[in-house]
C-alpha cells in the first residue's frame, strides 16, 4: 500500500486551491496517516492562468472537467465544480462509470442526486464521499455514519448555514436589523453577492436532507424539506427572544418515526441552556440524538477553504486506507422510502410576532383569534409605539399543535389591526 | 460478508450489560449498517448468577476471562474488565496473540500499555479499538484519527471527566463547597465510593494521554501528564471566577511542538465566550485545533452504560465493515518519541487565590512577592472577612510565564499572613 493515491481535481476555486495547499503543507503527515501518499495529478478549471496562490503547472491540465473521469493517471476524482446538475453531475456520473471513486463538497448535487450516485458507486465497489458537503470541516457525516452507527437516531438538527448564523449573531450583538447586517456580511465576504441560497434556507435544507438520510437510513427527500429563511427577522424579535431567555438560530431539524420523515429549516428560539444558543458567528453545529448514546454535538467551521479542504482530504485518506463503505452507512437499496410527516400535529411552544396599529380593541381581537384556534397564551409583551405609530406584540404560547398557531394567524390575516407581516417561530426544547 | 461477527465479552458490569442490551435492541439496524450481524457468543464475569436485566443464558459462559482469547466461536474480544494491568492486560495480550481483534473501554490499560498492544495488533493485521476509553459515547478518537486526519493538530483539550464536571456545575449552580456536593454525587451514583481517580484528575489524565497520541502522532506518555484535581476548590473560587466572567472547569490540555509534548490536567478558568464554559453536568467535550480545519468540538455523554456501549459497538461495526487501521492513526512504530515540555516558560494569565489574616500589611506583602517574582497584577479582589476572620484575596495576573506565578507563591509559603492553602489556576484563552 505504498503506491500513491492519485487525485484529479475539478474546480480550482478557494476550496480547490485549499486542497492543493493542504496536501502541499501536510503531505508527509498525511502519507504516514493514510499509509501512502496522496498526490494531485490532474486539474481542471475555467481559467488556466488565474493566480490561485498555488503552483498548478506541475499537474496535467484538462480544459473539460468531464475528461478527468477517464484520466489515466487518476484513481479518484474530487468534484468542486458546484451546482446540482450540469457539469458537476456529468462529471460525477462519468467518474463512477469509469471505475474511479468520487469525493465531492457539492451539497446541492448530493441532495438531489445522491441516491443515484450511491447506487452507481456501490455496484462498482467504489467510494462516494461527501463529508465536505455538510458543515464544512466538521466530520459529522463520519460521526453519524460510523461514530453513532450503533444507534437508532430519532432526531438530527443543527446550525447548518454559517452565513445566517453570522448575521444572527451580529444582529444580536449590535441590535441592528437584518438588511443592514447583510450588506456588511457581503462586503466582508461572509455572504454571497446573491445571498438567497443562504438566507432563504435552501443551503441548510440541502445539508439537512443529507444528514437525515445518513442518520435515519431513509431515502434522500430534499423536496419534502419545509423551508423558511431569516429575511423577515427584526432586531425586535431578537430583543424579545433575549428578554425571554432565548437566542434565535436558523435550525435544520429532522426526525423520523411512525409519523413519517419530518424535515424543516426554520428560525427557532433556542434556550440559553442549550449548546446551540452559544454557537456564534459562522460556526456550524449538529446535534444527533441516539437511543443509546444520547445527545451528541459536533461543532466547527462550516465553510472556508481550510476547513472544507480538511473534510475533502479526510475523505481521500479514508479512500487511501481502503476504509469506505456505502455512502449512507447502509446500502442505498436498504434505505427506507418514508412519507413526509404532517407538521400540523406536532406539539411545541411557539413565538408569535404581530405588528399592529396602536388603537383600542386590537389586543382583544388577537386574543380572540388565539382562543378560537385553541392557542393557549403563556406570555404576551406589548411594547410602546414604534416611530411609525405601530406596536409590536410578542406572544409565547403554551405547548400545543402547530396547526392551531397557523390557524390563529390565518384568522388575523387581512385584519385592519395588523400593519405589518406577522410571523411565528418554533421554540426548541431544552 | 453476511457471516456474523462473533463477540466474546469479558466483564458484565453496567457497560457489558449495556452492550448486550444495545445489540438486542438495535441488532437489525446494526446488521444493515455493518453489512452483517454482530452477535455475542461467549461471556465471562465474576458472578454467573447476578441479575443484570439481560439474558446471558444463551451465551457460552467461561469462568476465566483469559479463555475468551482462544474461544473457538469468537472473532473479537470486548474487554470490559477494567484495571491497567492484571486480568484485563492478560486478556488483551492473549487475545491479540490468538489472532483475534480487541475492543476495549479500558482507559487505564490503553494509557499504560497502548503502544505495546498496538504493535501486537498491527503486526498481526488485527484491530485494536478503544473509542469508549475516551469521552464515553462521543466519537472523538474517530474524529481525530479519521475526521481531522488531514491536519497537523497543535492542541487538544477538553472536559474529560464527567464526575468532576458534574460537581463543578453543581457547586456553581448552588454556591456550595466541593465536599458537600461530592457526598451527594456519590449518593446519586455520579461519583465512585472511592472518587480519587476522578476528582484527583487521574482518569482525565489517562484519557488525555490517549488523545494526545492520536492527535499528534506521538508515543503515549501518561507518566508525563502533570495532574491536579479539584478537591481544593472553594465555592468562593467559583464565585470569584463568575464575577470575572469565567467558569471553572477541570481541563485536560495537551499540545505538541518544538517545545516538546505538553500534557496537563488542571482546573482552568474558562471564559463564557468559550463553548467549554457551557458544558454542564456529566457531559464531556473535546476541542481539537487543526492547522486547516480550525477548532473542532465534540461533545456528549462521557459515561453511562448506554453511551459507553454505543462507542464499543461503533468499534465493532468498524471491524465488521473491515474499516480499521492502526489504532493511533499511523503505525505504532511511526509515532514520535517526544520529550516532555517544560511548563515554566508557558505564558498565560493566571488566577491566584490566597486566604490571609485580616491584619495590616498583608496586601503589601502579597504585592511585594508578586513584584519580586515579576508577576504583573491585572485585578485584585479582597472580600470581607470570613466567619473565621480570614480574608480571601483573588488575583488575576497579566499574561506572563507560569514559573513567575509559582515563584511568587513559593515566596509567600510559610508567611504568617497566610492562614490557608493558596492555589492558582490557568485562564484559558478565548
Search tags:
430 residues; Rossmann fold; 12 helices; ten-stranded mixed beta sheet; 3 domains; 18 strands; elongated; Dihydrodipicolinate Reductase, domain 2; six-stranded parallel beta sheet; homodimer; Alpha-Beta Plaits
Q: Mind explaining what this structure looks like?
A:
The structure is a homodimer of 430-residue chains. By secondary structure, chain A is α/β, with parallel strands linked by helices. Chain A is built from twelve helices and 18 strands. The radius of gyration of chain A is 24 Å and the shape is elongated. The model of chain A has no long low-confidence stretch (mean pLDDT 94). At the A-B interface, α1, α4, β12 and α10 of A face α1, α4, β12 and α10 of B.
Brief overview, please?
Helix content of chain A is 35%, strand content 24%.
In DSSP terms (H or I, runs of 4 or more residues), the helix count of chain A works out at 12
Helical content of chain A, roughly?
Answer: 25-40%
Number of domains of chain A: 3
Amount of beta strand of chain A: 15-25%
CATH class of the largest domain in chain A: Alpha Beta
Q: How much is the radius of gyration of chain A in Å?
A: 24 Å
CATH architectural designation of the largest domain in chain A: 2-Layer Sandwich
Global structural class of chain A:
alpha/beta
Average pLDDT number of chain A: 94
Strand element count of chain A: 18
Would you identify the CATH H-level superfamily of the largest domain in chain A?
A: Dihydrodipicolinate Reductase, domain 2
